[in-house]
Amino acid sequence: MRLQSLVIIPTRPLAVVAFAASTLLLNACGGDGVSPTAVSSQDTPTHAVTIEPPKQANAGLGLPTEPATGAVAVSPTLDSQDPANTPTPSAIDTQPDKTEESAFSGAVGGAVDDRAPEFAKIYNWINSEFLTMEELRGKVVLIDFWTYTCVNCIRTFPYLREWNEKYKDKGLTIIGVHTPEFGFEKVTKNVLASTVNYNLTWPMAQDNDFGTWLAYGNRVWPAKYLVDAGGIVRYTHFGEGAYLDTEEQIRKLLEEAGVSLDDVEIGNPDEPTADSRAYSSDRSIGITREIYGGFQRNSSLQGIYVAHERYYDGPSQTLHYVDPGDHQNQFMYLQGPWTNGLEKLKHARETQDNSDYIGLKFFATSVNAVIDPESGPPFDVQVTIDGRPLTAEEAGSDLILEDGRSFFIVDKARLFEVVALPEFGGHELKLSANSPDFAFFAFTFGAYSEGP
């Protein structure tokens, strides 16, 4: 969908405007328009923004992750390069899963019964030499589209690790296709660090130009395409969940290929469910949607995340904001000077007293924040909940409780687990940093008892 004009929002009530054009997706990340030649990630636009942005969702299983051990192979030729542009993926339009065996349709693409397309425009390979689908013929292949700051992708990692361990010697090959949402997710060293941190040992293709994403007609993170030994797509699943169904399909295709699985037990059929309050029809108390800081997402018809009318006068403006108080769920409020870049909201001065902040009222069990230190030195982000430091029972895994403060240290561009409450509820949250390198991209929220 092309944005015809800049969205102008009233000062009140914001919720009516935003939700007239937006639906909450609880299990997957997606967007409303794909453009492999999207605007530059340097936040210096010379024309109106016309690209609909990706949206992320807010629920799923959160399980602890394990640190990796051992070396990770990286293709040497492109390791240190940092591409300039950030393509924007398309909208979620989930097709129903198909599990019945059927003949090759004659088409090439990501639909069930299509011949799986070749990897296209791959920027780099991690954990592997260059691979082709033709080389993988004879194996069952699970294509997993992901990006490293997508919380919904992170929640699927425990299942991917389990399947890789159980079936890699039985003929299953998992191929991660890392298609970036933000510009910094194109940098090989950032993706590599994520694979090490989450112990993702299978081959990873960096799809920086969305070539493979487009070849499959993909529309969401995470997305799984299961390809049989003959190279035909036999099963798809979009978003979190359906872990038992997916494993059953893996086993089915392996057995069709002549593999005995008598010695391999299928996983636990129980799958988590979100707190029922997250799905309230009253959006003022339901789970908070993902909230973006960048102008590109805010100015879309799915946007209006920042609750200040001046923000929408145009991108790349540095303005001094005053928090009006009386926060509503589903929006972000600013105090102090901030610059509204296309992808990010950046603190516009150095302070000494954490006087400038991002505030919001949220309903969730977990809160995560995507933040980039902008190549500057590490800095602290102070966090308060309901006007006070968080307790040990409320703190996310990245939060430090020290000297009467609760904070986390930003030393690289990634998703930070900030809040992990014992139960679903509504609270006021503030994030503040004295550093002018504080670049905020997105909040994500969860409604499960464990995980981000």
Count of separate DSSP helical elements: 7
What is the CATH superfamily of the largest domain?
Galactose-binding domain-like
The radius of gyration computed from the alpha-carbon positions, rounded to a whole number of angstroms, is 22 Å
Instruction: Output the CATH topology of the largest domain.
Output: Jelly Rolls
Architecture of the largest domain in CATH?
Sandwich
Can you write the helix and strand succession as a string?
A: HEEEEHHEHEHEEEHEHEEEEEEEEE
Shape: elongated
What does this structure look like?
Helix content is 12%, strand content 25%. The protein has two domains: 14-53 and 279-446, Galactose-binding domain-like (Jelly Rolls); 76-256, Glutaredoxin (3-Layer(aba) Sandwich), CATH 3.40.30. It has helices at residues 14-20, 151-154, 157-167, 188-197, 211-216, 243-256, 295-298, and strands spanning 29-31, 54-55, 124-126, 140-146, 172-178, 204-206, 220-221, 223-227, 233-238, 291-292, 318-321, 332-340, 345-347, 357-372, 379-385, 400-402, 405-410, 414-432, 439-446. With 452 residues, the protein is of the alpha+beta class. The strands form three sheets. Strands 10, 11, 12, 13, 14, 15, 16, 17, 18 and 19 form a ten-stranded antiparallel sheet that branches. A six-stranded mixed sheet has the order 3-6-5-4-8-9, with helices on one face. It has a three-stranded antiparallel sheet with strand order 2-1-7, with no helix packed on it.
